[in-house]
């Protein structure tokens, strides 16, 4: 750790180095010692986020003599810089934290990385068909919360102008605090590319998540279409307005309506006679919902976090 910190990498370079140590597949102690054919390449968050050039975001895991397991970055000329020390924590097929002997060396991950250019969220949305939503963020003051989270990573789902226009009668009936909660519900406090959304279906927490008021929604995809289901309404991702890490802005076809503020749609019984569906759900008391906070990203993303970097994560 001291040798790494002594190099005085920028925050954004450290982010790349750390992401190289987070694998997007599950590797418990048993699996590490039983690698098929003795060696495998596995993707990391450095690769999955699209930051790594070429295949430099892959890590080589190889079973060595004497029961040892070696690790090395793909772009490190085949060198295995580190070996498995011990397992710290394992939740089978969900998450595994292991200790390794040394940091993984990677010229690409360690390359100087400049800070992202200053991004104006409301300006980005206003110029690309989401001006109505941008105006609501500014008027309510919710834009400050979005901007505070941008450096750490931010995913925004912006309803089209026509969607916001149709929703305004309901929006006007909300109290000021509930308006802010609804707007914050359209942001996830982490950068999630389109590919990451497709491969990490499940429950997502939002900027509005607060204790018992979970303010979450489920992400799913069918073919190339990504959907966001709040249990009140299901919105579809129409496209990307801006993707420049740490910010990504998606355009969606509906305003996301949280179950904490609106009545969930009750599924019809299979044999029940069909009835005309209501045009929209009615507002509900936020205190009626006491769902617990769900884990960010559902349960599909399986990561192996190498404990050597826990200290950096706390910086």
Automatic annotation (TrEMBL):
Lipoprotein as UniProt keyword: yes
Start and end residues of each stretch annotated as Disordered: 272-292
Superkingdom to which the source organism belongs: Eukaryota
Keywords, ordered alphabetically: Cell membrane, Glycoprotein, GPI-anchor, Lipoprotein, Membrane, Proteoglycan, Signal
Subcellular location: Cell membrane
Sections of the chain in a coiled coil: none
GO biological process: root development; shoot system development
Topology class, membrane: Lipid-anchor; GPI-anchor
Acidic residues biased stretches: 277-288
InterPro entries for this protein: FAS1_dom_sf, FAS1_domain, Plant_FLA
Signal sequence coordinates: none
Stored SUPFAM superfamilies: FAS1 domain
Stored Pfam families: Fasciclin
Domain FAS1: 117-256
Listed Gene3D superfamilies: FAS1 domain
Matches recorded under PANTHER family: FASCICLIN-LIKE ARABINOGALACTAN PROTEIN, FASCICLIN-LIKE ARABINOGALACTAN PROTEIN 2
Family of the protein in this entry: Belongs to the fasciclin-like AGP family.
Protein name as catalogued: FAS1 domain-containing protein
Organism of provenance: Gossypium barbadense (Sea Island cotton)
């Amino acid at each position: 750790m001291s040798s790494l910190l002594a190099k005085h990498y920028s925050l954004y370079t450290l982010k790349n180095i750390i992401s190289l140590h987070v694998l997007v597949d599950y590797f418990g102690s048993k699996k590490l010692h039983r690698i098929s054919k003795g060696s495998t390449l596995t993707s990391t968050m450095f690769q999955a986020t699209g930051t790594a050039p070429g295949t430099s975001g892959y890590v080589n895991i190889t079973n060595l003599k004497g029961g040892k397991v070696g690790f090395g970055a793909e772009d490190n000329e085949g060198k295995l810089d580190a070996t498995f020390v011990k397992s710290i924590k394992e939740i089978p097929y969900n998450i595994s934290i292991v200790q390794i002997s040394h940091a993984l060396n990677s010229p690409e991950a360690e390359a100087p990385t400049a800070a992202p250019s200053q991004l104006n969220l409301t300006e980005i949305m206003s110029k690309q068909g989401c001006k109505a939503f941008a105006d609501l963020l500014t008027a309510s003051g919710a834009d400050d919360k979005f901007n505070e989270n941008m450096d750490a990573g931010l995913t925004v789902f912006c309803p089209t102008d026509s969607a916001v226009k149709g929703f305004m009668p309901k929006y006007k009936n909300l109290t000021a605090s509930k308006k802010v909660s609804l707007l914050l519900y359209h942001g996830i406090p982490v950068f999630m590319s389109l590919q990451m959304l497709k491969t990490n279906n499940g429950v997502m927490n939002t900027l509005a998540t607060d204790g018992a008021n979970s303010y979450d929604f489920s992400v799913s995809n069918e073919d190339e279409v990504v959907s966001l289901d709040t249990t009140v309404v299901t919105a579809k991702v129409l496209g990307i307005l801006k993707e420049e890490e740490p910010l990504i802005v998606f355009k969606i076809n509906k305003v996301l309506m949280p179950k904490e503020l609106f009545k969930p749609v009750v599924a019809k019984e299979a044999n029940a006679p069909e009835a005309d569906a209501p045009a929209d759900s009615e507002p509900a008391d936020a205190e009626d919902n006491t769902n617990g906070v769900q884990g960010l990203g559902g349960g599909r993303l399986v990561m192996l976090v190498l404990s050597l970097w826990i200290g950096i994560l706390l910086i």
